[in-house]
């Protein structure tokens, strides 16, 4: 297996490991960019349980996630294994009430 498919396999496992996964720069407590900070704020406001992956801690994941999703920027949000988008798309969906509905339809667990 080459590096790219190994990284894709790792990302696939991460994406499937939790209902909601946010690939971001930094951590929810210490986001390292404004877009990641906004993505965390949206998820916190929705009150859903989610996991995060700090791409700054793993260069393979940082590069690999962009080809995995065919999306050039981070953060990236996955719900039930499906790529939803970055922080701009999250914000648009949130403001339209679509993100809340999507979480409900996907039966995402609330944060504890």
Largest sheet strand order:
2-1-3-4
Order of helices and strands: HEHEHEEHH
What is the annotated CATH architecture? 3-Layer(aba) Sandwich
Low-confidence stretches: none
CATH level-four homologous superfamily name: Glutaredoxin
Domain count: 1
Mean pLDDT: 95
- The total of helices stands at 5
Q: Characterize the biggest β-sheet.
A: 4 strands, mixed
Tell me, briefly, the overall form.
globular
Q: List how many beta strands DSSP finds.
A: 4
Tell me the name of the CATH class.
Alpha Beta
Return Rg in Å: 13 Å
Based on helices, strands and strand pairing, what is the structural class?
alpha+beta
Residues in β-strands, percent? 15-25%
Q: What name does the CATH topology carry?
A: Glutaredoxin
Distance from first to last alpha carbon:
39 Å
Domain Glutaredoxin: 20-83
GO molecular function: 2 iron, 2 sulfur cluster binding; disulfide oxidoreductase activity; metal ion binding
InterPro entries: Glutaredoxin, GRX_PICOT-like, Monothiol_GRX, Monothiol_GRX-rel, Thioredoxin-like_sf
Protein name: Glutaredoxin
Polypeptide structure, described:
With 112 residues, this protein is α+β, with helices and mostly antiparallel strands. The protein has one domain: Glutaredoxin (3-Layer(aba) Sandwich). It has a 4-stranded mixed sheet with strand order 2-1-3-4, sandwiched between helices. Strand 1, helix 2 and strand 2 form a beta-alpha-beta unit. Helix 1 packs across helix 3. The longest helix has 15 residues. The mean pLDDT is 95. It comes from Novosphingobium marinum. Keywords: 2Fe-2S, Iron, Iron-sulfur, Metal-binding, Redox-active center.
